[in-house]
Amino acid sequence: MPKYVIEREIPGAGKLNSDQLRAISQTSCGVLGKMGPQIQWVNSQVTADKIYCTYIAPNEDMIREHAKAGGFPANSISQVFATIDPTTAEQTV
Q1: CA dihedral sign, ordered 31, 55, 39, 22
Q2: Could you read off the pLDDT of 8-25 as tens digits, one per residue?
Q3: What is the DSSP string of 20-55?
Q4: How many other CB atoms sit within 10 Å of the CB of residue 87?
Q5: Distance set, CA 35 to CA 29, 68, 87 (Å)
Q6: Shortest CA distance to 78 belongs to which of 5, 12, 18?
Q7: b/e per residue 48-75 (b: at least 16 CB within 10 A)
Q8: pTM flag (> 0.70)
Q9: If we measure between CA atoms, which residue out of 63, 21, 70, 64 comes closest to residue 41?
């Protein structure tokens, strides 16, 4: 199933406290629970004014549906075609 990175522009995101982040997470999980197992939240990274989320879903439309139902922005959605990390440098072909 495809993996996506979603860029959410949320001014002041880096200043959200743990209770606020928990509330956002609970809202997201509540929407996901109603949408079924086809869409999964993998993780998110919070920066100063954006949150970058990784999701597994059958298509972008489902990502947009989740964002709309949760009241979250989805300013850009990009499909992930590969993931690399430091161990990629060590792999031999």
Answers
A1: negative
A2: 999 999 999 999 999 999
A3: HHHHHHHHHHHHHHHH-TTSEEEEEEE-SSEEEEEE
A4: 7
A5: 10, 12, 35
A6: 5
A7: eebbebbbbbeeeebbebbbeebebebe
A8: yes
A9: 63
